[in-house]
Amino acid sequence: MESGVDYEAVFKASLTPLLVLTPEFVIVAANDSYLEVSERTLADLLGRHIFTVFPANPGAPNDPDAQGAEILRASLARVVATGQPDTVALQRYDVQATGGPRVFEERYWSSVNTPVFGPDGEVKLIIHRAEEVTGFLQQLRRSRGRGVTGARAEMEPMETRVYARARELLDLSERLKRAYRQQSESMSALREAIERQRRFVLDASHDLRNPITGLLTELEVALSEPGAGPDTDLQQFLRRLLRDAERLNDLVADLLELSRLDNSTPAATELVDLAHLVVDELGCRTLSAAVRTRLDQQVVVCASRIRLARLLSNLVANAERHTSTKIEIIVTAEPPDAVLEVIDDGPGIAPADRERIFERLRRLDDARRLDPGGSGLGLPIAREIAQACGGHLCAADHPTGARFVLRLPLTA
Fold first, then answer.
1. Do the Cβ atoms of 68 and 93 come closer than 8 Å?
2. Helix or strand (DSSP H, E) at 405
3. 2 to 6, 8, 9, 97, 312: CA distances (angstroms)
4. Eight-class DSSP state of 351
5. Which of 15, 134, 327, 384 shows its CA 20 to 30 Å from the CA of 303?
6. Residues contacting residue 278 through CB under 8 Å, at least 6 positions apart
7. In this predicted structure, what is the pLDDT of residue 88?
8. pLDDT block averages, 10 residues each, the chain of length 412
9. Would you call 91 helix, strand, or coil by DSSP?
10. Which residues pair with 395 in a beta bridge?
11. Are the beta carbons of 167 and 89 closer than 8 angstroms?
């Protein structure tokens, strides 16, 4: 085993009597402690239904207070139905004594039944943990016998209640432990989210400072050094200022859009034909690469047109930075989805990076080299817009270059 722990040996050697059952209550495993207390062998148990091996209490078949099998069956059924552990506080089930085949010894048991889930979240197995409590009850009875005459009748129901309350406390303790674990996991997730937010604010602040610093530097030089100011080359000076101002404006727009998405700010929705959206968006841009389109008509979604235009613009801008010669945009209907693809013929994205690129401010080395002024927010914004519209955006396989696939619910 990879972990180096032989779990089968641990199970077998456990001092607690344990059975493993299927959801149909068929026994598939039993440890040594269970075999000892039940006075059975593995051959007696494996592959057999638990209530075939342990039918109605053989020592008191007609005793209404000795319905151990029925109590256990109900507990196991609750585990399968609810997916929650279930405790049987007390049940009577006698075992055959050594004095003869029809001689039984009175025995009392407590059990806890715990579900084991499969990958699909369904109950695949049940761990049945048994504990004999006959000695506990016998001790109560001995104490009762030394009391005042007449106390015997009063003690009879009390002994069961005492043990039942003890089992309830044990069950409550288990629930509290689970709640504590869940709370610890929630707190850990919260701390992680706070740390991500802190890093995001620091990184965003750093990115905002770059264009601001550029603007301040240009202005300080212009004011403090005669001959190096705007009079030397006004157009060049203004272009540098404009570039930094545009960069600053883009960053602020990205942060505002993320704020709206984080706060689930609703956007007005309308019917949007994706082919028309692509044509309109391309008509507003001057691209440095050739663009090929394959646009099916009447591929309509219900979404915010402004946000979808932002999503498409971010994907096209990303493709333009990385492509070698051309960009391909495809719109098709694959009911129940409307599909929009943006493909470039650049270096592509390694499979290990296809989720990382959607992390905020995450920029791979190629992206930093091709666009040092980029923010690392374009693709995260695109994905979050897709999710806000009820869809999904991912980076998919492609023989050459990168391929982004947007899926949205298709409107009939």
1. yes
2. strand 403-409
3. 10, 14, 15, 45, 46
4. G
5. 327
6. 293, 295, 312, 329, 331, 340
7. 80
8. 69 87 94 86 92 73 60 89 84 67 74 89 91 72 55 56 63 74 82 71 63 73 59 68 72 71 75 96 87 95 92 91 93 96 93 87 54 68 90 92 95 83
9. strand
10. 404
11. yes
Please name the residue that has the structure tokens 């040594």. Answer: 32
User: How buried is 109 (Cβ within 10 angstroms: 0-12 exposed, 13-18 middle, 19+ buried)?
Assistant: buried
What is the spatial distance between Cα 300 and Cα 411, in angstroms, rounded to a whole number? Answer: 6
Distance CA 274, CA 175 (A): 51
Strands 300-303 and 270-273: antiparallel
DSSP 122: S
What is the rounded CA–CA span in Å between residue 105 and residue 71?
A: 20
240 token code pair: 């540098």
- 124 phi/psi in degrees, rounded to 5: -105, -30
Q: Which of 109, 210, 93 is nearest to 160 (CA)?
A: 109
CB neighbour burial string for 136-166, b if at least 16 within 10 angstroms, e if fewer: bbeebeeebeeeeeeeeeeeeeebeeebeee
| pTM given for the model | 0.45
Are the CB atoms for 334 and 341 separated by under 8 Å?
A: no
Total residue length of the chain:
412
Question: Hey, which residues does 301 pair with through a beta bridge?
Answer: 272
Instruction: Copy the structure tokens of residue 15.
Output: 């001092």
Q: Strand 270-273 vs strand 104-105: parallel, antiparallel, or unpaired?
A: unpaired
How far apart are alpha carbons 204 and 28 in whole angstroms?
A: 57
Contact 326, 290 (CB under 8 A): yes
In this structure, the strands spanning 392-396 and 104-105 are unpaired
Strand partners, 384: none
Which residue is it, tokens 């369904």?
Answer: 122
| Coil/strand/helix, residue 171 | helix
Cα 318 from chain centroid (whole Å)? 29
CA distance 366 to 372: 10
